[in-house]
Design brief:
Elements (H helix, E strand, L loop, with lengths): L1 H22 L2 H9 L12 E4 L5 E5 L6 E2 L9 H11 L11 H14 L9 H10 L6 H17 L2 H11 L6 E2 L1 H9 L8 H9 L13 H17 L5 H8 L15 H8 L7 E3 L4 H18 L4 E8 L4 E6 L27 H10 L8 E4 L18 E4 H6 L3 H11 L1 H10 L25 H12 L3 E3 L11 E4 L3 H11 L14 E6 L5 E7 L3 E8 L11 H16 L22 H4 E2 L11 E4 L5 E2 L15 E6 L5 E5 L2 E6 L4 E4 L5 E8 L5 E8 L1
Parallel strand pairs: 1-5, 3-4, 8-15, 17-23
Antiparallel strand pairs: 1-2, 6-7, 6-14, 8-9, 10-11, 12-13, 13-14, 16-18, 18-21, 19-20, 19-22, 22-23
Helix pairs in contact: 2-6, 3-9, 5-6, 5-7, 9-10, 10-11, 13-20, 14-16, 14-19
Keywords: Carboxypeptidase, Glycosyltransferase, Hydrolase, Multifunctional enzyme, Protease, Transferase
Pfam families: BiPBP_C, Transgly, Transpeptidase
Protein name: peptidoglycan glycosyltransferase
Length: 691
């Protein structure tokens, strides 16, 4: 019985061989190849997010959970290709898909032993099997594999076939392709491989599950060493190099795939129109250094705390690093939440904008005096953060020390509506209470903004008051937005913040920064800039639980300064604009020497009747070509208490005792900010374009 069974099996094998040989006849083979449909030559590949230089930040598996990263021959170390051909298919570039010598040997061994002893498959045949998923241990499946291999050779180049192998070769579990395997087993791209690494990548696909290094490291190493030995015999590797490679340890674990800028990458990859490869403006090295910084800092701050860091080039609007949390996989710290995009109370971080508006409107000067004493503002009574009051200080010192009462004094004059309007010019849409209109409390954090919002506002100050949108995709630059502050006011704010006290006396050369702490110690902030970059830091708990003692200057500022250090040497801050009023307190115009509250019910402040805000006025300036200055501009005023002090672009241009009009000759065409200050300190301002 056993003999008859063996005879039938050999007969079947002989018939199959006869069929294959018949197909080898030129006419029959040509017809069969032409009638063989090709499988999908573009299997789905992992979506990739890469940095500005093409470095992989984060891949995503395909729909069935397979890691299959696109890679071509030029992306892989040539050593791997050399070993692959030496071990698998030495005549790859000579045959037409089927190596008849190898096939003959394999069929002869099968006839002798009644089973498959050696494969005889070419790389092209392996690609055919992997793409069609044929059962090549059946004769019908083997015949189809041969036909499909010939069809692939007819319609694809050798490099295209090799690229398909590099893409779909199995490496155990849910890993396919050389690039995914190199990242999984070596933690690196396959562009540079050691002989031992290249040999292991050649060996695994022959029996991917049995040779998985993370499960069967001994088998994997033995298979690798066989590849090295055969490569040495074939002359693909010098014998001494092969011997040295066999002494190298084989990996016994699996590395996680890269996950830099995890939150940003995830958000962009899940857009409906997301492309297969998303190229970000992120710099991978900077991102990695700052993620390590955030992870270390969060551990120092305590359990369940997290840290977010955002870095942008304020000259272009490009985001260079976006750290959404200390660890995206740390559930205890709610690391899955991107804290660069969450709305939180900004604490004192909006004070620079308040002070800048007061400078622009002629309400204050950095050397003006202002009172820091317990005060009430229509029922709102801000308190000092540390419970102490400094009395009378300069405006410069008030901002550097982040005093609350002076900030609210200035906000009362500037107006909450104006502050919000300037924020919106920069594209910031703060979260406000639906119950009541915004009041003075917004100056101390009574609204919601994101870390990205604060970085955008600081970038505008760093750019001389001109806001620009931030962008995270390479090839795009930020779009110019509205002017947040005048150039002079922005520089004055920058100059003040560059002298702010640092934590524990740390150096902050060429860095202008502001810290903030939200009510109840829920959020600690630090936002700063030099001549090139702006960095924002948030620290706290993602669930908004208070963290006793969490203060911006102590928790967030050190992280921000360390982030600047990891970027390299700081760049010089923006130079002062021309015609800036740079005098001591005693030399200021009288209304500016001491900032006092001027809100008195029933006493109207000054109002500029002409020209209206936003007007374009033709004074003949555009036609002068440097000869004269054209006509003088007439500014007319109503209400207010004389005498009046007049400013143009932040500089005093005159003082009138009783007249409610002023004539002045502009320096040239362009925008002009005209401000008038009355005896009580109330102000009015318009911006016009002169031509």
């Amino acid at each position: 019985m056993r003999g008859r069974h063996r005879g039938r099996r050999r007969l079947g094998i002989g018939l199959a061989l006869a069929c294959v040989l018949a197909l080898a006849a030129p006419a029959g083979l040509r017809l069969a190849v032409n009638l063989t449909p090709l499988p999908d030559l573009h299997p789905p590949t992992s979506q990739l997010v890469v940095d500005r230089n093409g470095t992989l930040l984060r891949p995503f598996p395909v729909a069935n959970g397979i890691w299959r990263l696109d890679a071509a021959k030029d992306d892989v170390d040539p050593l791997f290709t050399r070993l692959l051909l030496a071990y698998e298919d030495r005549r790859f570039f000579a045959h037409h898909g089927v190596d008849m010598a190898a096939m003959g040997r394999a069929f002869w061994q099968m006839l002798r032993h009644g089973r498959i002893v050696s494969g005889g498959s070419t790389l092209t045949m392996q690609v055919a099997r992997l793409l069609s998923d044929d059962d090549t241990r059946s004769l019908l499946g083997k015949a189809h594999q041969i036909l499909l291999a010939r069809a692939l050779e007819e319609r694809l180049s050798k490099d295209e076939i090799l690229n398909l192998y590099l893409l779909v070769a199995p490496y155990g579990g849910n890993i396919e392709g050389v690039r995914a395997a190199s990242l999984a087993y070596f933690g690196k791209e396959p562009r540079r491989l050691t002989p031992a690494e290249a040999a292991l990548l050649v060996a695994i696909p022959q029996s991917p599950e049995a040779r998985r290094p993370d499960r069967f490291p001994k088998r994997a190493k033995e298979a690798r060493d066989r590849v090295l030995a055969r490569a040495a015999r074939a002359g693909a590797l010098r014998p001494e190099i092969a011997r040295q490679a066999r002494t190298e340890a084989s990996p016994n674990t699996r590395h996680p795939f890269p996950m830099l800028a995890a939150h940003l990458a995830n958000r962009l990859a899940h857009r409906p129109d997301a492309p297969p490869v998303i190229t970000l403006s992120i710099d991978a090295d900077t991102q990695a250094r700052l993620e390590a910084l955030a992870h270390k800092a969060a551990k120092t701050l305590g359990p369940k705390t997290s840290v977010a860091i955002l870095v942008a080039d304020h000259r272009t609007g490009e985001i260079l690093a976006s750290v959404g949390s200390a660890d995206p996989l740390d559930f205890a710290r709610a690391g899955f939440i991107d804290m660069t995009e969450r709305e939180r109370s900004p604490g004192s971080t909006l004070k620079p904008l308040i002070y800048g508006l007061s400078f622009e409107l002629g309400l204050a000067h950095p050397e003006s005096l202002i009172d820091d004493r317990p005060s009430a503002f229509s029922g709102y009574t801000p308190s000092s953060f540390d419970g102490e009051y400094r009395g009378t200080v300069t405006v410069r010192r008030a901002l550097q020390l982040s005093l609350n009462v002076p900030a609210i004094t200035l906000l009362e004059e500037v107006g909450p509506a104006r502050l919000l309007a300037r924020m919106r010019r920069a594209g910031v849409r703060p979260a406000l209470s639906d119950v009541s209109p915004p009041g003075l409390a917004i100056g101390l954090g009574g609204l919601g903004v994101t870390l990205r919002d604060l970085v955008t506002l600081s970038a505008a100050i760093a750019r001389g008051g001109r806001a620009m949108s931030l962008t995270e995709e390479k090839g795009e630059t930020g779009k110019p937005l509205g002017r947040v502050l005048s150039e002079a006011a922005a520089w004055q704010v920058s100059d003040i913040l560059a002298g702010a006290p640092t934590p524990l006396g740390a150096k902050a050369d060429n860095i202008a920064f502001k810290t903030g702490t939200s009510y109840g110690y829920r959020d600690a902030w630090a936002v700063g800039f030099d001549g090139s970059h702006v960095i924002g830091v948030w620290a706290g708990r993602a669930d908004a639980t208070p963290v006793p003692g969490l203060v911006g200057i102590e928790a967030a500022a050190p992280i921000m300064l360390e982030a600047f250090a990891r970027l390299g040497p700081t760049k010089r801050l923006r130079a002062a604009p021309p015609n800036l009023l740079d005098v001591a307190t005693a030399d200021l115009p009288p209304p500016l020497r001491h900032v006092a509250r001027t809100s008195q019910p029933g006493t109207p402040g000054p109002e500029i009747a002409f020209p209206p805000d936003g007007a374009r006025i033709d004074l003949g300036l555009a036609d002068q070509h440097g000869e004269g200055h054209g006509e003088a501009l007439a500014v007319k005023l109503r209400d207010g208490a004389p005498p009046f002090t007049w400013f143009v672009n932040g500089r005093p241009v005159g003082r009138t005792a009783f007249r409610r009009e002023l004539f002045f000759e502009p320096d040239g065409p362009g925008f002009a900010d005209v401000t008038v200050l009355d005896r009580t300190g109330k102000a009015a301002s318009v911006r016009v374009f002169l031509q």
